[in-house]
Amino acid sequence: MAKAAGVSVATVSRALRGVDRVSPRTRDRVLAAATELHYVASPAATSLVSGRTRGVGVITPYFNRWFFATVVTGIEKVLREEGFHVLLCDLEGSTFDTRLPITQTMLWKRADGVIILNVPPRPAERSLLDRLGMPVVTVGNRQPGWPSVRIDDRAAMGVATRHAIELGHRDIGYAGTVPASITHLQTPFDRRAAFTTVMSEHGLVCPPEWTLECDWTAAGAAEHASRMFALPRIPTCIVAASDEIAFGVMSAARRHGLRVPQDVSVIGIDDHVHAEIFDLTTVRQDVEAQGRRAGRIMLEALHGRAADTVVDDVLDVELVVRGSTGPPRMVPADAPGATGATSAADALGATSAARQAPKPALQATS
């Protein structure tokens, strides 16, 4: 290539690496020669010489979930603009409450930096990442000393819960608790805590039978919600910790003959790509924007332009009201199973109980 361009081998190397000590005219000659000779630099060889891989490790608890895939998309779009690529490290375990550990072999000599999605590192993992000496950015959770990009999960759940209360709902269920054994995800616990706090502020309590524990998938939520909708008395509104959970709740409601929102309102969080199709009221977060911002922070760190203070970018959320929420519908006092003006969901639950209970018990209840 040096012979074809009429320059030295060292000049070719500097031109291909973008070093400043090469004139634009000479660089153009070298690039033209590279194109003519179909030259492609070996990434492995370049890495050995420069000590840089031009890769960024992205650690995610799940890859096949909409939220995480969308964040990765945002990160990748920003990195590829400057010639970096994503090294995906999926920690998904064999069950929902387990994950793989973050190890040195995942990252050492394979990545120049790490972006961690919603995974609070264990002490040994934090120590490992600190020893590797590469920049770390987190998405979805705040870690001391590392820049982060996130929404305020508690605030988002507060918006969703207050929307339900402002519509007039008092019998409110919650979908999205997880087992206490799950230590690798913070979002479920933050959202659950915020729901309880807002309910308490308004003198309301969600009974255990209206609190759905699931694996944060639509299928898991549908299974648990189906059991709840079979109860004699059901809530007039379900606040779901995510849109995917809300989709499952809506599916279970339809299978039980309940109309959304006439009989039961449903609200989620995220503004999932399918939320508008399902006409779901939700609290919107810009997921891809979080990925793009995390990618930019990482590039600044890799280029030595990191801020003097640790960045904590908290992006805004927005209530998007669609057709899945409305006020609790009142029914006449003489409706089947009703003991006065009550919600349609109560009436449907009471009617179901009346079909199953012996007549004397029904008369005693009346």
From TrEMBL:
Gene3D superfamilies: 3.40.50.2300, lambda repressor-like DNA-binding domains. Coiled coil: none annotated. Residues 332-354 have a biased composition (Low complexity). Residues 325-366 are annotated as: Disordered. Pfam families: LacI, Peripla_BP_3. Signal peptide: none annotated. GO terms for molecular function: DNA-binding transcription factor activity; transcription cis-regulatory region binding. Residues 1-50 form the HTH lacI-type domain. Keywords: DNA-binding, Transcription, Transcription regulation. This is DNA-binding LacI/PurR family transcriptional regulator.
